[in-house]
Each structure stands twice: as structure tokens, then as C-alpha cells.
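FORM 7B - TANDEM STRUCTURE REPORT

SECTION 1: FIRST PROTEIN
SEQUENCE AND C-ALPHA CELLS:
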Amino acid sequence: MSYLVLARKYRPTTFAEVVGQEHVTRTLGNAFTTNRVHHAFLFCGPRGCGKTTLARIVGKALACERGPTAEPCGVCSACVSIGNGSAVDYQEMDGASNRGIDSIRELTEAVRYQPAVLRKKIYVIDEVHMLTTEAFNALLKTLEEPPPHVTFVLATTEPHKLPNTILSRCQRYDFKLVPASKLGQHLTRIFAAEKLPVEPGAISLLVRESGGSVRDALSLSDQIISFVGADATITEKHVAEVLGVADRTLTRTLVRAVAAGDAGTALGAVESAIERGVDEVQLARAIVRYLRDLSVLQVAPDRTELVDASDEERTELAREAAALDRTRITQMFERMLRCCDELGKTLQPRLVLDCALIDIATIEPLVPLGDLIERLGELEQRIARGGGAVGSSGGGAGPRPAPRAASPGHPQVAAAPAPVTAAPVAPPAPVRTAPAVVTIPTPSAARVEPMPPAPPAPASPAPVSMQPSGPVPAVHKGATGSGPTSDAKLATPSSAAEALATWNQLLSILEVRRKFSLLGYYEPARVMKWTTDEIELGFPVDVHHMGEMAADKSTMEELRAVLRELGQPVKVSVRMLDSRESSAAGPGAARSILETSREQKTIERDKRVAEAREHPITKQVLKEFGATIKEIKTDV
């Protein structure tokens, strides 16, 4: 007697024996139990998942001598004839070979006649999407209203190619690939029934290579059994050698080698795998799949069912995932994924794979962006406090910050800054200041003479009117002084000049803290009032759009949070100034930081122009060429 392959020998004969399609078998079983069987079924899904097998079971359930029943007996003449393919009234057609209108015309003519032996006629059209448009149109009427003794079962792997007129006339069932766990259990039962010893690793590798198809898994099993023989135990190494794929041991060796930076060991493992007949593309895909399993176990160590492996392999994977850094695994995964794409386009796959492994083994591990930002923040704070950039003389290099401990999987990154030399800053022009002016420290490395300290503020100061009696000093973030730190405290001002200076200090602190959004919103604001309870800010007409964004609830809440940290738990209010208030000028008008800075620059520019005009050389030039210059201006 000829050998019967495993895929046919262990073909299910009842709904309960079908693996991994419970959503289909339960629906069909209930339909037969309640006698609500449709006249046309459409089975669609990937290859080897049970479409044709279920079509035969449906035929047995309809034609069984005990039926129609959800559990055909399998021993009556109807079940036996359908099972061995000798039933006259059960016909399986190949849609690719009988795709023309003539074949469908013969079918529609035959359905009018009563069944010869069975209770019903069952027509199974496999790969029905191969029928022509004319054949589909010829089948429409018969498919919609067939005789009561006829049932159609259509099967296809590409349901999107079927016309909607066909889809609307059938009861559709979507099959899916069999999950790895269920397919592994099914293969274990078959090997046990065949009395063949097999390792769990071999089952796992067979399941992975079958891709969820039961028929492919059983066909590969036949091949492995023939290679090993009748008495030997089937191991993972046997499966990998026969199928030309990388087993878990080889993949683990490669990943460990490249993670440790040992490119030589990795290339040696590739060489031995190629000699065994392992394909480069399959090897790269195995590495990517292994890295994916490590990443899953790192982020979800309790969800081991998400990893397609045996219990022993999952334990080994969990140990490996705990030993490697997550950033390193992500870096390796991305590079190997690019390698897989390149392997599909090149004629030299070995060269591409070797270079990819060398690249991964020799590349420096990435430092997380959060660590770099944290180190930059520490460096900025040291520079702002004057302890890490320049000395008191302005030219010496300060001490370097202490190195941070390297995190697991990351080498030490040098974060010491280069010496910074402070540029000489010209002293500002003398400005007449109000008695209560507070000098605001601003970031710089140059030494300046300290200003007289401000008088202490009263315990409960009265509301400060923003109408100073004299010109407000140009306190600007670009001025000289020692820089503010992010942990500075603000004192409630007692005069307009102090309010402007304190507001400038707050903006400088926002800049040190990298609060650039708040800095951009509130820098154009005028300080209209500052008390122990409230800060009122005004926005001129030309920056009303900034005022609207600054008045946003979330923006103001963020500013209040900063003020609370700086010892100012006050209420902040914003109002838009009208045209008269916006255009107010003179010593009695409030000004924002930007406006004050622009006014100071204008004053300084006018002073330099006046000094230039009084220079002896300028006077000499005007004396010699004044008439000529005047004529030229007149002509222009």
C-alpha cells in the first residue's frame, strides 16, 4: 500500500477536530443543530488552514444517513464515499481549470437534476476567484436561488477578487492562520501518535517555519521524519539543517557576539551556518525575530505568551533580555531590519550580512537623549553660577564637572565643556536712576562694580503704581552681571523701578530654566502693577496677539507655578492696552523690557553719533568738505 502523507492521514473528519478555526466550526455546528443551514457558503483565508477540509465536513454533515447533523458518523456509505472521493453527488471543482462560461453552464444544467445517491448535491468550487467575469455572471441566478437539493461551497484565498454580486449571495466565513501554541500542540499529538520522539525546540522551529499553516507544518514534518529515520530523536538541529534555517542556538550566539562587540565570533558563526546551507536572508530574519522577542520580554516580562517559543526557550530569552540594555537591543533591531531590506535587493547577500554584523558590533551604543539633556542642564547651571566656566579674572578655565556613572549597556560619555573665555564688555553709559532701583544680576563672566542695594521692602507694601518719576533704567538680559540661577527667589518690589528690575530677573530665570515658551509670551509685556497679591501685565496694541496667547489658562497656570517656586504666590492678570495707553511716552509711562531695551539702545546710538560729530577729525572733514557734502545731499 502506498504511503499516505501526514496532511491526509490526519485530516479532520468532524468539526471538533479542526484546529484553530473555532469561530467557524462553532457557527456551522450551531447552524446544523438548529436546522438553519445556508444554501451557499464562502470559505476564504490563507493556504493550509482548513477551507477544503471544512467543505468536506459540511458535505458529510448534509449527506450523512443520521443527518443533517453537526456530528457526521464517518462510517455510513455517504460519509465514506465523500471521504474517499467516490461520491457521485459530491463534486469538487478547480476554479482555475474550469474558469470559463462553458464549465459554469454545464454546472447550472446539472443542478436541475435530483441527486443520484446522496440526500443532497454538494458543489465545492476551489479557488473560485479564478473564474472569469462571464462565468460569475452565469452563476449568479443559480447561486441566489438554487434547487432545494443543492448546496454550494466556494473556497478562495483572495476574496477581494470576487464580485460583490457573488459575495452578497453567500454566507462568508473568514479563516485565519493557526496560532503557534495550538499548532504546536497539534504537531505534538501527531508525533506521539506516530511514536516518534521529538524535542520541543524542533516543534517550535517547525511551527515558526510553517507560518501558521497546518498543511505546511505536516509537510515539513514528513520531510524531517524521512531525514532523521524511524528511531532517532528529532532535534532542533535536525530541523534547522533540513530546512536551511537558523536554529535558536545559532541566533543566540550571533546576538550575544554582536552585543558584546565581538565581530569575529559573529562572522565565524555565519560562516558555519552558510556551510550548513542556511540562507542569508533566513538568518537575518531569525536575528530580527530573536531581537523582537527580547524587546517584548523587556517591556512585558509577564506576557510570555507573546513570544513564540517553548518554556525553556522563554526562560533563556528572559535571562538574555535582563542582561542587555533596551537601547542597545533597539539599535541592533533597527540595523538588522535595514539589513533584511538590503538583502532582498542585492546580488551579494553574504557581503551585506557580514558588513551589517560588523557595523552592529563596532558601533558605539547610543546614549539616551534624556541623559544628554540632563548633563547639558547641569553644565548650564555650573556656567551660570560661575563655577565651571571662568574664574574671577575672566580668562581661566574652571573645574570640570565630575563624570556621571555609566548606565548599564552604555559607556562613559565625556561631558566636560571646553574652556570659555569671557569677552570684554564695555561699561554701560551712566544713567540717572531712581532711588529704589534694584540691580538685576544677568549672565555674564565680566566683573562689574556692584550697585547700591535696594532698601528692604515693607511687610505689606501698598500697590505700586507703574508711573515712575524719572526714566526707568534699561535693565536687560544682555547686561553685565552674575547670572541668576533657577533656584533664585524674588522679592516683592516697592517701586516701579524695582518692579521692572524684578520682572527682568524673572525673565532671566525663565531663560535659565529653558522655559522659552513662557519667555516668548511674556517678554513684550508691561508691568502695570505688582503687589503681594497680584501682578497685572499689559500688552500694547502691536503685541495683542502675544497677549492673547499669554492670557491662555494653561500658560498663566505655568507662570503661576514658576512664581510660587520663587516665593511669589500671587495672582497674574493680563489686559490689552488701548491705543492711547500703548502710545504713551515720556518719563511717566510704563515700559516693557523690550521697549526699555530699545529706548536704551536708541539713547546710546544718539550719544555715539553726537560724540562722533564732536570729534576733531569729523569737524575737520566738515570744515574742508562741508559745502561739497551739502551740494551732494541737495542733488540727491
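SECTION 2: SECOND PROTEIN
SEQUENCE AND C-ALPHA CELLS:
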Amino acid sequence: MKNRWNAALFEQFTDDLLAQRVYSSQLLGQEPQLVLHGGGNTSVKITEENAFGEKEDILYVKGSGWDLATIQAAGFAPVKLEILLRLAQFQHLSDAEMVRLQRTAMTQPDAPNPSVEAILHAIIPFRFVDHSHADAVVTISNTANGLERIQSIYQERVLIIPYVMPGFELAKLVYEQTKNIDWDTVDALILMNHGVFTFHQQAAQSYNNMIQIVQQAEDYLENLNIKELATHQTGQQAIHTLVGLRKKVSQIRGQALIARMDCQGSTFSFSKLPNLSSIANRGPLTPDHIIRTKRNPLLLDQAIDEALEAYSKDYQAYFDEHHLKGLQCLDKAPRWALIPSKGAVYFGRTVQEMQIVTAIAQHTMRAIYKAEQMGGWTALSRRDLFNMEYWELEQLKLKKNKESAPMQGKIALVTGAASGIGKATVIALSKAGAVVIALDINPDIMHTFSSPQVKSYICDLCDEKAMTACLLEGVAHWGGLDYLVLNAGVFPPSSKIQDMPLSIWDKSLEVNLSAPQRLLQHCQTFLEQGIEPAVVLVGSKNVPAPGQGVAAYSVAKAALTQLGRIAALEMGEKGIRVNILHPNAVYDTAIWTQSVLESRAKHYGLSVADYKSNNVLNVSITSEDVAQTIVTMLGPAFSKITGAQLPLDGGNTRVI
């Protein structure tokens, strides 16, 4: 356990207790062995002067929705300490009422809701309080004789609290058990199956206490010669299994998901354990994780349909066994899956959600492996886990997360993505919630997008081997393919047929027709497993209204359009929509160099300025306009349209 404390850096916060709290909270949050993605909470007690000049003790406690790794001062909710201490004396208090009363005791109405552990933080009589879900400690407590092990490690210096639900119930238990103790004799609270609380008047010592408590647990595991999962073996990704699984899990969940297969290192080793089916179904590392990962992963030890049906039936039985009147069963879709001897698959509506599930699952697998060497992994009972999963406060969090972007969870592939229409389309799709595989021959593609929703590849589409490799890697990265935008193309130099070099003709056909055809062919098998799959081919005004001197370009785009029409007929049987967009006069794209503009304007006897505004509506068409139209064509507005050709040209008289 690394101690990240920097005394020199901390000196700048000497006169600001809240800044001290922010600093040490971030240190805790930066250590994934302590907290994961929003887990844990911290507080500081500060005496402040109110509007009437009266001194008040205020508890600044981590606010709901903030992550310790990145928390700022605004992420702490200021609550009157006196009110919290009085709430601790109640015999009964529902969690919803507790949240309401805590909110009424806040001194800043625009601050986030206080942590559900605010009362517990209040009754611990030290200025700084830190709470983590330390892997090592929880691993030890999650064994059959975990209590005895915890007692043997820490002796009398910690107060051990049996597991109860977080919130008022936990605060009340601690309140009752600590009425008559000498807090100066206690370094920490160990919450069985849950985590650790440390505390001190000084931020540094509270943080150091946490590190020392966790280090003792890690030393204990090391002294027992507890083995880590092997990391030297690597499994092979089964892309088609991944794509099919992603679609079926999305259908059960009722929304599109992205998915990623993990067959590397320790995950692969875990998937090869002989008792995988037993240990994988006992429960999560800590109950706080259940809202992210559900009680257990899907075990893909049989055909996908059968495995998912068994998982759904087990979840329904779990709900029927424990639910109270008025509760509605959540979706029965797994959040992650284990494939024996191959690895794991993680699902998420967004990249962030998938990353959270990934981190929690990987930590859980390592913890289970260690606990199995100490007599067996023993998580909380199904009842306790159900109570946490269906806790009213967790349900409120789920309701807040219901809104989503229109294409959230969808997976798109865009060619020619480094500039112009392709770049604008990637950005538009990302804003709509989709994740994107971005291909371009230009090496700049690797630095064009900074969004985690975009996976970029340098790819010459005329190199079928390279194109196939990028496609497979991209599909494996996101878990499938729903949308295909065939945009990449070249605009060859103007040349009349009788003067045209064969090289110009051949290159135009290869780049504008043959390469898209091959990519479409390779994508079809993935699109067939996609969610509301759709293809948009970027054609040209030159298809309905060709001009002299551009035979190589016009013929290739006309053939591409015909390819799209036939694809609509053939792929429609598989539920894949194929439509063609014919933009014109989109001058902020790479093909419209100054020399091309001058050449085309001269051909029509116009100045460049007049040529650029030569349409019925007298409007300019931008790459962003085209991108938004492409997104519309991929989306639900075109759900019953296929084989269509749509002009986007401001009204071209020859097309009309």
C-alpha cells in the first residue's frame, strides 16, 4: 500500500481545513486498492461563523455523486454538526427521511446531498474522518472465519462492527457501541464485509492510519503466502461470441450496450479456475458494488441463450424470494460475464460505466482468489445483498441515471475520419452518445480525437488485410457494430475521357468503389448482430447530375450508389438499412483544394466565390451539416427507410 503523502505540498493548505480535506481525499481516491469509482467517503469538522455572528460546528462531508479521486471543495456538503448528532439519538429513521433532514440542516442549499454516512462521520469525535473499501481488509473479512482473522491482525486497536446496512442503521449501531469507549484507544473501525474508518485531529495522521491499517492486512496476506493470480498466460478473443453476447445482453437490458472482452493476464487465469462456477456466484467484494455489477456475473458455460435464460431465472428467483410489496424488479441483464478458460466480458451503457464494471470485476476476481486460499470466499447473504441492491437510496440513484443520449451504447465505424465530413461525423456521433471506430489513411487520425468514445486506426482501405485487421480490432474493442458510414474517397484531377490517364481512372475506382465494397462485405456479419443496424454511403451530386471532366469520380460514385441500392435489397432481409447521401459544395473538406475549386469554377465560367454559393437557397453546406444529416439517417427518423438517395446541396437546379 503506497503512502502518497507529500508533506511539502501539504504545507500550502496549513490555514485551510477544507483544502486539507480535499488534498487527503484525493490521495485516498487515487488508490484503487482503497476505493473504486465513487466509493468511500471523507469529512472534516470546521467551526464557522453564521450570518448572525454565531459560531457553529459544521461537518463538511463528501457529497453524493462525487468521486474522491477528483473531488474539489464544491464536492463537500456542509451540514450542521449539532443536527446530525441529534439525529443519531433517534431510535428509528427511514433513509429517505434521513436524507431529507440532512438536507434541511445544510448551510449551503446549492451543495450536493450529504453522504448517507454523514451521521456516522458526525459521531466519530475527530476532526478528520476517512472511509474506504480497502480490498485487503474486505478480502480477509469475506472468509468463513473472517472475524477471527481481523481480530488476530488488529488486536485491541480497532473496533469491529458487524455488517449492517449503510445509512442510519449503521450509524445507530456505531453510536450505541461507542457510547462508553475511550476513542483515544481506537485507531480505526473495521466494518465487516464493508470497509474501514480511520480518524484523527490531523489530516495527515488520519490518512496514515488508513494506510497502516491496510498495510497490516496486506502483510497478513503476504505472511500466509497468499498467491496472486498468474498473469503470464493470455487467452484468445472470440470476437463473434462477444458480438452475439453483447446484442443479447442489450436486448435483455432494454438498451444498447458496449462490451469489451478481457482475456489477458490475471482475468484469463481466474477464468481457468476449476471451481469457477461455485466461487463466481457467491457475491461481490463489498455490497456497495452491487448497484454496479449485480450480485454475480453471467457464467457462460453453455450456449449464450441457455446461459442468459438461466441467469434471468436465477435473478427472478432472487427477487421473488426477498422483495417487499411495491418494489419493481430491475432488469435481469448481467453487468459482466465469465467465459470458462477464456476470460471475462464487461458491459456498459457508456465507456465510463464499462470502465467502472471492469475495475470492480477485476478487483473482485483478485480478492476471491486470495480468499479461497484462506478457507473460502464468503460474501454477504442473498438477503443482505438484495437489501442493498433495492435500497431506496440506491433506487433514487438509478432513477437519476435514466436519461441518456439518443445513440448511447451504439457502435459506429466511420471511414475518412481524420478531416472534413468524416471528422464531423465522428464528433456528431460521439455527441449523440455513440462510440466510434475511426479509420483514415492519414496518420493524423491518431491525434484527431481525444474522446474516450473514439478508437482510431491508421488504415489504408485499399489494403484488404490491413482493413480487416482494423475492423476486427475495433469490433473487439467496443463489442460489436451497429452503424457503418462509408465516407472515405478521393476527388481526382479533372480530365476529359479522351485525355484521362489510366492511373486516375483506376485509383478513383479503387478508393471510391472497390475499397468501400470490401469493407461493407466484411462488416455485414457484424451488422447482422447489431442493434438497429444501418449503413450510410456518402455519394455525390455528380451521381444525379454529372459534369464534364469528372468521369473517374462520377462513375465511381454512381457505381457506389448502385452498390448501396443492391445492398439495401440484400441486407434488408437481415434488418440492415442502407441509404445514400449525395452532398454537394461542401467546401471545408480535404478534396476541395484551392486548385480544385478554381478548376471547377472556371469550368462553369464562375468566380470561386460565385461557384461556392451557386444553389437555389443561396446557403453554404458544411461538413457539420452533412454529419448531422448522416446521424439522422442512421437514427430512428429513418427506421423504416432503406435504399433511399437524399440530396444535401441547398437545392441544385440540375438535380431538381
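SECTION 3: OBSERVATIONS ON SECOND PROTEIN
The chain has three domains: 7-223, 239-397, 411-586+623-647.
The longest helix spans residues 502-527.

SECTION 4: SIGNATURE
Preparer initials: ____
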